[in-house]
Amino acid sequence: MAIGKTGEGSAQTAVQRPSRSKLRREIARHRSVYLLALIPLVYYIIFKYVPIWNAQIAFKDFMAVRGVLGSEWIGLENFRTFVNSFYFWSLIRNTVMYSVGKLLISLPLSIILAICIYECTRPVLRKVVQTLAYLPHFLSWVIMYGILLALLAPGDGVVNDIIKLFGGNAVDFLSNVHTFPWVVLFSDAWKEMGWSAIIFIAALMGIDVSLFEAAMVEGASSWQRVRYITLPAILPVIVTVLILKLGTILDAGFNQIFMLYSPQVYSVGDIIDTWVYRQGLLEFEFGLATAVGLFKGVFGMILVLFANWLSRKLTESSLF
Amino acid sequence: MKRFKSILLLTLAVLMALPAFASGSRESKAAAGTPDDPVSIELWFGAAVTEAGMIPEDWVGYDIVREKLGIDLKLTMLPSNESDQDVRIQAAGAANSLPDLFMVRRPVLTNLVKQGLVAQVDGCFDKMPTRTAQQYDANSIAHTTIDGHVYGFASPGAIAKNEGLLIRKDWLDKLGLEVPTTIDELIEVARAFTFNDPDGNGRNDTYGYGAFVETDATLKSYPGSRLWPIMGAYGVEGLWCFDSENAGLNIYKPAFYDFMVTLKAMCDEGIIDPNWLSYKKDDFRAAWKQGRFGIMYEQNAAYAATANYAPFDANFPDGEWIIIDAVTGPEGHAAIGAYDMNYRIYAVSQKAADAGKLDKICELLEWMSSDEGYYLLGWGQEGVNYVLDADGIPVAGDLGDNAFTGPKGQVYTQLRNMVFYNGDVELASRYPTYVTEVSGKTMSALTALREMQAKKWTSAIGSGTMPTPNADVQRYYDQSLAEFLTGAKALTPENWQAFLDQFNAIGGAAWNEEGIAKMQADGLIR
What we know:
The complex is a heterodimer of chains A (320) and B (526). Chain A is an all-alpha fold. Chain A has helices at 8-15, 20-29, 31-49, 67-70, 77-83, 88-119, 123-134, 141-152, 158-165, 180-205, 209-217, 222-247, 254-260, 266-269, 272-281, 286-315, and strands spanning 4-5, 60-61, 72-73, 317-318. Chain A folds into two domains: 5-9 and 13-75, no CATH class; 91-318, MetI-like fold (Orthogonal Bundle). In chain A, helix 5 crosses helix 16. Chain B is α/β, with parallel strands linked by helices and 526 residues long. In chain B, helix 5 crosses helix 15 (358-368), helix 10 packs across helix 19 (471-486) and helix 19 crosses helix 20. Chain B is globular and about 75 Å long.
């Protein structure tokens, strides 16, 4: 993913555009690279672009036997059903709350972890920390639920045992509307922090080492090196990640919420995707499910475009 | 370069065309249904032993149905979790690629019928005399009848009334308490189990009542069936009431509020295991085997089958659960729970019927219920997977791992739920009497079952066919009750009335009316 500089740079690029024959020669010369690129390209065409055709069922009363084209056109009825649902605003609020919350908690933690791993001078320790940090990513939310229950159960959870040891009352973290959102946010951070840090570690590896050496010669402290070299150097990557995350702002993590939530915490736990699962998939309302998916996609795209524009204005770096 | 571009284009075109063939090639001509030219039948089934694997490729059944029926049987095991099963079937339905014959739950069947994806099978029963006599009675046929037509074969499923109210007798004896007979006595015993150290370990680590939230869309409404013995004391067990005086949703009965007050008081006092709102089924079952609580509602085999009872027996050789009568409430009501007839539905896709496979499917099902099919699917091959005892009951004998109960043999019985109908032979074979390893007790899940069935139950037959609400109404119902129980919303008569008013406003009243109309139309009101 290239980060393009705006302004004069783009004009220059336009002037220096290679001729068609030169482009062919370039492709022929790097054909192995293009062949490699072909695999994800084909994947995206088959699994991302071809299905867009089926998005039209968002505007139809979809009947499987009639197929996509044969189903009755009902305009925006599915969108109206979603928007007029009793819990619409609650679903939007919860979804955005978890998405933004995960962004605010997980992103800084991932950056901090990446910097810590990068700055660590003991290779063995670094590898151990890295492995331990990545590990939870590979656990399913079913297993994570078991771990969380062992930690947080009100009867015999480790955390509640400690609370009771100090004379406090047990808290049912998973069934309490005040604690449940924090459990969701921090369990996600715990699970994904290590994995998300990979991209930042990769960016850190690209920083010119001589900058750090020069800073040390000048007497810069570790914190000053992070502040004046590391963070500015990985800022474009942070912006890229942020922009891409905004595109999925209405994806709050179905698997996690579906495993953790229960009727006691529906008011703070039910998100768009869990509602779609219950109302769309289980009730065979595929038109409705598609309409909500389309709604999320369009909303995400608008946010990405806006964030890209804002980033270009403020930091002179953008995704496209 | 030109050649390279052509290859690229061709590769792209082929890859893009691949999804068009994703659902498989269409048969170019109708198969004859002979061993040489067999009809292909794809069957998606519910596994009998969910933790075991798929039926192996070398299963003798494949050859038998090919040779005798001219059927090339293709089996696919559905996910064990009901929700996952639903999603799998719904997704196949949405793509119009349902298999020829498939297991399906009734709410999903209703959706598929609306979509025109399921074949009518009204005329099939006469073609399967043995199987129909064994498995499909009038109630079963009514279960899959929608708008006057039959859309599936409903076989007997889980045994009705196979759960019971159990109490730790050793704890009662230690504390000098009698078996409770009223709801007040039950609460008193629960209190003693919580605060009087019934296991004598000197630690405050036990609770009175244990449960978890086990709900479904038509019978086990929130807070779920594990609380049924308490709900039964107030006459509000089950989602629907089929009595002529109070027909409709039980939630409208004033006694439901009284039940909520009692349950809330139990929660507040801490005499019900506080983990009950977070437990999943396995957590709950692990908890009673670890001696966390002394009163519970549990299924016969989950309690008394060899493997299930063994951990409790090892942990508490002197421990003893007994099955007790339903406790009586303030108005004289008592019930262990509500029961419906349980069925496993197998439906035929419209595609299969259009391809002329319906008769072959009937032949297959009829063969399954023949002596040959019944024993092969139920227990495997005689001498390999089972032997017959003196009473003619299939038993494991000395067949070791290859026995139908062993790790290698049990995979050959994955289709047994398609032939079992809870007959005496099956029950005697499934629930043998045994002696526990550590304490030497004589146990039998069959005896437990018969004892549980003899208790007082409330009939809710027809619940499985009742309408289900939309997701918003269902959420409001569940969430509101949960909030009352957890204290997020104060449980007062005013708030309860406000809850009912709002419930009615968002669709609860319409759901109730639709349900009553369905009861009247189907003659379910008693």
